Amino acid sequence: MAVTSRGAARVIPLAPAVVLLALFMLGPVIWSFYGSFTDAALTGPAALNPEWIGLDNYTALFGDPDFPKSLWLTVVFVFLSAVVGQNVMGIMLAGLLRSAVKPVRSIASTVVVAAWVLPEIVAAFAAYAFFHSEGTLNAMLGGIGITGPDWLYSTPMLAVIIANIWRGTAFSMMVYSAALAEVPPELTEAAQLDGANGLQRLAWVTLPVIRRSISTNLMLTTLQTLSVFTLIYVMTGGGPGTDSSTLPILAYQEAFKFAQVGYGTAIATVMIIVGAVFSVIYIRALRPEVD
Amino acid sequence: MRTARFLIAPVTAVALALSLGACGSGGGGSDDGTIKVAYQKFGNFTQADELFKDVKADFEKANPDVTVELVPIEAQQNDYFTKLALMNRSPSTAPDVMYEDTYMIKSDVEAGYLAPLDDYLAEWDEWDQFVDGAKEAGAGDDGKTYGVSMGTDTRGLWFNKDVLAKAGLPEDWAPKSWDELLEAARAIKESDPDVVPFNMYSGKPQGEAAVMQGFEMLLYGTGDTLYEDGKWVLGSQGFVDALGFVTTVFTEGLAPTPQQALDTNIANTVQAEWLPEGKVGISLDGSWVAGTWLESGNAPWPEWSEKMGAAPMPTQDGAAPGAVSMSGGWTLAMGSGSSNPDAAFEFISMALNRENSLWFDVANSQIAVRTDVAEDPEYTKTNPTTEFFTGLVDVTHFRPATSDYPKVSNEIMVAMESVMTGQQTPEEAAAVYDEAVTGIVGEENTTQG
Questions:
Q1: Residue from the list B16, B17, B259 with its beta carbon closest to the beta carbon of A133
Q2: Which of A119, A30, A91, A106 minimizes the C-alpha distance to A221?
Q3: Predicted confidence (pLDDT) at residue B234 exceeds the cutoff of 80
Q4: Alpha helix (H) ranges present in chain A?
Q5: Which of A163, A207, B186, B354 is deepest in the core (most CB within 10 A)?
Q6: Phi, psi (deg, nearest 5) at residue B285
Q7: Which DSSP category does A194 fall into?
Q8: How far apart are CA B383 and CA B363, in angstroms?
Q9: Nearest to B371 by CA among B124, B126, B154, B51
Q10: Which residues in chain A touch residue B204, judged by CB atoms under 8 angstroms apart?
């Protein structure tokens, strides 16, 4: 009896959070999942009485030539900007800043964190102004006599990937700074005494010790990047054509530009699955051994 | 811990699903004492805003117990439709009166957003002033009237006489075919490489403007059409040719660069800056463009009537009737959820009475749909191009009046964007269009052109 009432007492503080999550997270997710099996639309007869159409949205989606392209662009975007870009840059910066002198450290980390502090829409406009054909980048290139291309038009994916690395690296850097600070110095010192060089110490001592942070950080950045919308929408609008339409842009366009909400939610459901696949891979690949 | 991580994964990934899911319905509704009026206000288009501000003042004076809440939606055309549709989905935000494009009416009637106005119109003694075409434009598929027309429009070629003169083209330039139009554009390019010879709207960011001012002005000049005898025409040569024209102007550099053309603000830029500054030679655009340059407009340009000329858009090879135009127009409609329909209609009838219609038609360079306005000397005198654009009514076409049109229109934007960016050839883009339209309307509703 005593145990049960203690259990109940422990649940009470959690209840508001659980209720809020169910209401504002789970509810819309279920609604969206349900919506993907209907022909819900913003206008026309289907807006009044959406009908259950089974898997029609999914059949149409998998038959749509834009979809494999969009899926591929999403994977490229997530892999290059989050998995490679933000993580590698983040761990490098964290490592370098640890050994830097204090003023350098504070200035450098302020600059990096500034991109993270900016609201997403502001960061997106800054990136737009930077990559625009008459923007900062081309003005700087012009200064040394190079006529830069119109980045947002001729290399839209490159531009949004670099912008996302710029914006997101601070997060990884902070996670890795914290993780590196936790590496016991006696381990690296011991390795040093055994004659391990810097690279060997990183590969065989530091990385294994912080692998949990790596897996958590990989997962967080991947999922954040998977749902990046504002940055791409402001910079390229998913264009030109569909050359930078990742899944969130495609879903927005179908649901709100082309008024097919049901079809848009089907794309959102596919995004959930892509995100789940990524997470399972991370958890399997970096499964922490008992230690 | 592991379960927790499994939870984090999907939960974070659905940030977008969340925003999609958030458009459910809510409670409430505007109370009897308030009517909500939703309309577009974007870039150079500020005339509706001015009109409704005036009408609000008059209306509240006449009805002290009713407050008018103006909801200007600052969004480009396609986003305006989206925002309006989202507002209409929830009773707490649904407007009582809305500024509604004629081509959205049938579709929005079927969505249950609009209320029929027949009972009110029967008692409105000014309704017989509206021409029949305007009455039809506001009708739903069920034959009832849902929108009261604010004016109609036609489309043609605007040109800057100075730019054309530099290229050796006459002041009364009027091309007889697409080839003559292209030749003129090439001549302008040669005379001044910094000028954009020919502007047409194209691609998804321009929305319906690309489809109607751009594509359909071409297609309806080929002898082919989008929709015939209740069926959508697929595989027509005219469709491919029209896309071919788009390809030509964008790949030859006769039009703005694709990156400029895909900027959501290009229409504002062309009308308010490039044409007055002589940076564009010819622009395929609507009769209302002059409204921007009037004193009441967003970019007044007193010399416009001397500097600008207008010519009809020619048919592909000059075939009869030699010119082509498209007509649309906007209406005021009443929301189906209005809790105070009497006041809503009173607002509509006040906004579109003789005096206000006259003001709006003049300020926004609309073609009047009220006979008493069309005869008014103020209407015929203020704007020297009114007569020209009114004359185009003889060769004008209307968009397919079906509720599927907005969806098909989206597919045309996609086709235009893919050819202007060189991602597809006209034939490929036309094939993609055919497949998409078959998917939207069903094979039984299509025919081979």
A1: B259
A2: A91
A3: yes
A4: 2-11, 15-21, 27-35, 45-48, 56-63, 66-77, 87-98, 102-117, 120-131, 136-143, 151-154, 156-181, 185-193, 198-201, 207-209, 211-226, 230-235, 247-252, 261-285
A5: A163
A6: -155, -175
A7: T
A8: 9
A9: B126
A10: 237, 239, 253, 257
Q: Encode pLDDT of B284-333 as tens digits.
A: 999 989 889 988 888 899 999 899 999 999 999 998 889 999 998 899 99
Count the neighbouring beta carbons within 10 Å of the beta carbon of residue A139: 12
Count Cβ atoms within 10 A of the Cβ of residue A33 and give its class: 0-12 exposed, 13-18 middle, 19 or more buried. Answer: middle
Task: Residue A254: name the closest of A2, A27, A40 by CA.
Answer: A40
B136 neighbors B327 (Cβ within 8 angstroms): no
Cβ B213 vs Cβ B155: under 8 Å: yes
Q: Do A31 and B81 touch (CB under 8 A)?
A: no
Q: Which of B104, B60, B109 is CA-nearest to residue B80?
A: B104
Are the CB atoms for B221 and B314 separated by under 8 Å? yes
Structure token digits, residue A222: 């991947």
What secondary structure does DSSP assign to B362-377, as a single string? HHTTPBP-BHHHHT-H
> ipTM > 0.85?
no
The tokens for B178 are 């697409």
Inter-chain residue contact B417 with A29, CB threshold 8 Å: no
pTM: 0.78
Q: Which residue of chain B is at minimal alpha-carbon distance from A222?
A: B13
Q: In this complex, is the C-beta atom of B86 within 8 Å of any C-beta atom belonging to chain A?
A: yes
- Closest CA relative to residue B227, chosen from B110, B402, B101: B402
Instruction: Give CA–CA dist B287/B213, Å, rounded.
Output: 10
The widest CA-to-CA distance across chain B, in whole angstroms, is 79
Select from B5, B7, B20 the residue whose CB has the most chain A CBs within 10 Å, as the one to mutate to test that interface.
Answer: B20
Length of chain A: 291
> pLDDT (tens digit, 9 = 90+) per residue, A227-243?
899 999 999 888 787 88
Structure tokens at A213: 């942070």
Contact A228, A247 (CB under 8 A): no
Distance, CA of B149 to CA of B161 (rounded, Å): 33
CA dihedral over B204, B207, B209, B212, signed as positive or negative: positive
Distant-in-sequence, close-in-space partners of B28: CB < 8 Å, separation ≥ 6: B91, B92
Strands (E), B170-249: 196-199, 227-228, 231-234
pLDDT along chain A (291 residues), means of 10: 66 89 89 89 82 88 88 93 92 88 88 89 92 88 87 90 93 92 88 86 87 88 91 87 89 86 91 86 69 45
CA distance A206 to A98: 13
- Size of chain B in residues: 449
Which residues of A fall within a CB distance of 8 Å from B86?
42
- Token readout for B285 is 């655009």
Distance from CA of B235 to the nearest CA of A (A): 19
Q: Looking at residue B233, what DSSP letter applies? A: E
Q: Which neighbouring-strand residues pair with B145? A: B139
Closest CA to B406 of A270, A258, A254: A258
- Lookup: tokens for B189: 């390019």
Buried/exposed code over B27-65 (b: 16+ C-beta within 10 A; e: otherwise): eebbeeeebbbbbbbbbbbbbbbebbeebbebbeeebee
Cis previous bond, B321, omega within 30: yes
In the block, tokens 């402001």 appear at: A234
Cis peptide bond prior to B312, omega within 30° of 0: no
Q: Tokens 């071409």 — which residue?
A: B218
Judged against a pLDDT cut of 70, whether residue B400 lies above it is answered with yes
* B23 has a chain A CB within 8 A of its CB: yes
Spell out where B276-390 has E strands: 280-286, 308-311, 313-314, 323-327, 329-334
CA distance from start to end of chain B: 63
Question: What pairing do the DSSP bridges indicate for beta strands B280-286 and B196-199?
Answer: parallel
